[in-house]
Amino acid sequence: MQGTALEVHDELVREMMRVLGDEVISRGQRSLELVQALLITAFWNKSTRKDQQASCYQVVQLAVDMGVDLGIAGSSWQPSPAAYFARVEDTTSPEARRTWLACYIALSTSSIDMRRPNTVPWDHHHEECLLYLEQAGETSDLLLCQIVRITRLVQEISSQLHLFHLATYVDGNDYDTHLTIRRLKSEVDIWTAQIPHFLATSQILKVLRHVAMVRLYEVVLHTRTNRSSFAAPFIPGRISVKDFPAPDHIIPPLRTALEALVGHCHAVVDTATNMDPALVLALPTFSFAPTVLYSLYVLITALAASTGPGNTYGQCLAKDCFKIEQCTLKLRMLTSGMKLLDPTMSCWTTRFFDATGWLEEWYNDYATIIQRYETFLVI
Fold first, then answer.
1. Which of 47, 57, 186, 227 has the smallest set of CB atoms within 10 Å of its CB?
2. Has keyword DNA-binding (predicted)?
3. Is residue 298 within 8 Å of residue 221, measured between CB atoms?
4. Is the separation of the CB atoms in 149 and 106 below 8 Å?
């Protein structure tokens, strides 16, 4: 609906949600096509300028629950009593398997963004669906399968580093933590090595790989009290200026991890901003644009943890290594290209990337404050 007049856009969104609500909630209909429609609504979510619609996270849960009721989730998941006789005839068809893996991506994205445990974790049926599509699916299924594989790895990273359990603190300045990080990094490297050669240059997979690494190293920015601040929405100022890690004695693996963290944040920005604006607009808003915002948020958090008063990470990261000005320039150029294709900003992806302007504004304000502080110290 790029370029659609705002009034027409809003009416189309309202009608789409009305039809889905009528079919799913009012009439209680269940079908593979409805699961797919719900997933499309969530992945490429739209909203009107004034009214409130169901959130994409609610729509994902509806899609997953309907998938379970239809029987495409495998034998480990029983349908609800009301839907016991609503199973689809062929629960293991390529389309059913494809749809269930898409449900996994959607639910995992929700889980990772909100820092909540995945309610339908990876199981044997997921693995069976994945292997089937890799061996007997269509060519386009191979990219889907690679996205599923890296999504599963990010889930594993989040689980092993307790990102879903906010009461459990993982110390980024502890050798045991870095043993876990090293093992998980090895798993990401193994995934990278097995990507089919014709997908090895995929910019989408490159972004997802670097985002996985950002999530892996994120723990070095955690304190006992700031961990919940790394959940969506990824906006500046969520972390108190006094709530950054500042160990007196930084162990060598932490130094390496901090450098790697900044490098992967830059790689996310570099890869995304080198993509064709038309491709970025076509990618699912729900699972792509927020990953770039997340990486920017982590980069800014690392900057504050390294340059703020009393912060000790400055021993490892020089102020000029963050390259904020270069990042903002690249993002502005990509956003300009997207606005040419989507002048009414009807796509949430355009709005998300346009909102990255906060990075430049926040950085300018922060740099001014730090400059004043350093001047005061000299005086």
1. 186
2. yes
3. yes
4. no
pLDDT per position as a tens digit, 147-179: 999 999 999 999 999 999 888 999 999 999 999
H or E element at residue 18: helix 6-21
One-letter amino acid at 378 equals V
Q: How far is CA 234 from CA 27, 63, 227, in A?
A: 37, 25, 13
Nearest-angstrom CA–CA distance, 10 and 68: 32
pLDDT of residue 81: 80
Closest CA to 145 of 199, 93, 188: 199
Q: What's CA 138's distance to the chain center, in Å? A: 26
Structure tokens at 372: 């004043």
Contact (CB, 8 A) for 354 and 277: no
Q: How far is CA 89 from each of CA 32, 45, 72, 96, 103, rounded to the nearest angstrom? A: 11, 30, 10, 10, 19
Q: Is 221 helix (H, G, I), strand (E, B) or coil?
A: helix
Chain CA centroid to CA 342, Å: 22
Task: Report the alpha-carbon distance of residue 112 to residue 42 in Å, rounded.
Answer: 15
At 319 the pLDDT is 87
Please state the domain extents for the chain. Answer: 169-379
82 exposure class (CB count in 10 Å sphere: 0-12, 13-18, 19+): exposed
Instruction: Quick: pLDDT tens for 177-230.
Output: 999 999 999 999 999 999 999 999 999 999 999 999 999 999 999 999 999 999
Per-residue tokens: 253 = 């693996």
The residue written with tokens 């729509």 in the block is 59
- Residue showing tokens 């090595």: 193
3-state secondary structure of 251: coil
